[in-house]
């Protein structure tokens, strides 16, 4: 049967949400889609059946969303990110489709506990930390506020590694989240594209070709095949698409080689292609690792750009109108090579002249910067870039020529400033600066907190800001409260609804009405009981998984994030050692019982970060087995921190550690998740902590340490950490204990280099901020001992965090950058 676009198709009747109907649907899918009788079904069978049942409803909304024409939608947003840390999707989808109560009742009638089966869903290993989780929050918020959008990324087979701890050391193991398939995804073979690497570039042979038109003859080609996942917004208003690419060889097996006995060689093309989507962030400490990383970034960027341009031509037949219909957002520098890929498509495939192509490109792209760390602003050796992407290297040089000429014409830029603006770094090994490429190729460049944006203008992009003073803007990050309050903390969610009604579910800033309950003793008691229940749940989980015994009545002090020296887990551990010494030395004092929980992964090639994990475990082993501090101090490193673990740890936290060196954390989003779940923040004036202080009130957050300006001043004036250490008895004693092997008796020199780094240069200001941090921790003890004061401050934090919703952030992107109506 040939169904044309004019053939009227019957619309399916709306699916019912009655628990009985849902139960029947689940059993039907269990029987006919999974092939299991209800009596023989195992928990993972029930999970699959539930996903298929809710997926049908999501697909109805997905199809309705895609039926809207471009004319109805105006401009579409395309969000390019190397990471999407989406976490488990079943509960998210059920909740956003407003079926959680009905689904819970339906499963209960079948003798199935929704919480039990929800725990079985794999946690998609598509991201590393905050950047990837932000992208996931943004995808959900774009659907919620009705922004038509595609997310583009990579369908990693293993993704970020699974972390185990062996004798205190991090061990990296494959994360096999796709081992049993992914019921949320749909393969779209019809939207596959070739992506090339290497080869030669020749002028176009056509006599009518533009002078800028070239033919890239790639020596290696792979097929990019997309898998689509529906991302439902709140109340199912819109369902957008997350499109993830997988790589396949053009020739899966070289039969001649196989038949000749070269069985491994016969699979080399297949292995080479599959390596592109095997692992997130391959270690780039070796030339081979750097090459694979660049290949990954170009692979997904090229496939995404080909898809975007193909879709635009299909609907509008004129590539020149692309900026009117497409807004492409680069999430950090990972997809920055997309700027040159769009230029290649416009120049070589569509025959545009260079200036017109460059205008279209700049009006289409916008770039989000997430870091001020020079090593995180990616750059690639010119020989590597040119060998893998010869045509794109030509385009980089052409863009750079125009960029530098523009700066020269404008005036006021000396040779040093010109060198800073240049896309090619000429200092030492010549490298392609991807941050500069992204900046030059975008009409908008945004930071992710007010402080971060100001520092961008003053530091890494100061000369670019002088050249383009209207380009940098701020979009402070946010988080989706559907996942990070409503779903992960149902007790608190229910209490809030009971107190102020349902308005905050659609308007997070309505949480402000909770201010009226901050000093209500009855509300405080309920609030505290919910926090205690969350702590008991976490305590029970850690006991089951790790045989860790922690007291839920103690203060839960939690630091969970990527392990990095600038995030200063080391400062936290050193203060714990100091506290340990004080408790033993002054047993007569009324010490607050405290549990310090750590979680996070270190990059496989980041030696000091892995050493910090080992130190946390070594200190924990000594402290936790010392009868002198039993019940007063406990440390625990929680392995394999991911979204699902965060959903348990964050609601249980009393104290949120946000202690990065001021001026180095772009924003942070964990700080927001903790606060809206009723934790007090101890932190520096860094990233979004500055704006959080302004919103929750300085009296409801514990701030310590140097400011970003003071950090820079210390460094400029010749900071001498050794003098600071010698002036602080507690710091000196703690560092000496660690350095001398008190916590590593089998290897006394294990931490000598780590601690010597603090004595010698202390770039991350651990010593400089120690006394202030220790004093702030004792002020936390004082607040904790006043039950009413702690409860009121925690409630104020929940009440005043509504502005940090990712819905607000996305509306700002849509209005100010993408020009999409919301």
TrEMBL record:
Its main location: cytoplasm. Keywords: Allosteric enzyme, Carbohydrate metabolism, Cytoplasm, Glycosyltransferase, Pyridoxal phosphate, Transferase. It comes from the Bacteria. It catalyses: [(1->4)-alpha-D-glucosyl](n) + phosphate = [(1->4)-alpha-D-glucosyl](n-1) + alpha-D-glucose 1-phosphate. The keyword Transferase applies. GO terms for cellular component: cytoplasm. One of its GO terms (biological process) is glycogen catabolic process. Pfam families: Phosphorylase. The modification N6-(pyridoxal phosphate)lysine is found at residue 673. Its cofactor is pyridoxal 5'-phosphate. Residues 1-20 are annotated as: Disordered. Its EC number is 2.4.1.1. GO terms for molecular function: glycogen phosphorylase activity; pyridoxal phosphate binding. CDD domains: GT35_Glycogen_Phosphorylase. It is found in: Cytoplasm. InterPro entries: Glycg_phsphrylas (IPR011833), Glyco_trans_35 (IPR000811). Belongs to the glycogen phosphorylase family. Phosphorylase is an important allosteric enzyme in carbohydrate metabolism. Enzymes from different sources differ in their regulatory mechanisms and in their natural substrates. However, all known phosphorylases share catalytic and structural properties. Allosteric enzyme that catalyzes the rate-limiting step in glycogen catabolism, the phosphorolytic cleavage of glycogen to produce glucose-1-phosphate, and plays a central role in maintaining cellular and organismal glucose homeostasis. This is Alpha-1,4 glucan phosphorylase. It comes from Sphingobium phenoxybenzoativorans.
